[in-house]
Amino acid sequence: GVDLASFGGNSDFWFDRYYNSNDSSKVMNLIIEDNDKGVYKKLVFTPSGNKLLGGILIGDIGDYAKLLAISKKSDLGGLTPQQLLSGDIPVDDGGDGTKLAEDDLVCNCHCVPK
Question: Structure pTM?
Fold first, then answer.
């Protein structure tokens, strides 16, 4: 099988089809594709690049929880879109190794924080 994850910070990402838009007045897309490793990562930002709207991860979903948490916030928290795409996402997880901050959600359906 193939690991697959998708996320959107709000319903606009899905209902307004931002995940499928190439309109630079609405979104900025950053994509990494490595066919040899079977990895595809597409992150969708506001045109200014200061907010993550959502994304699609195939093959390597290790950053899913952190990217989802960032997409729920009003900005990138001082990070750049390129850092998010490359997986360079520093986080203070309190030393527990989860790579999740205290206010990050571990269950989206029931809004359960770490």
Answer: 0.83
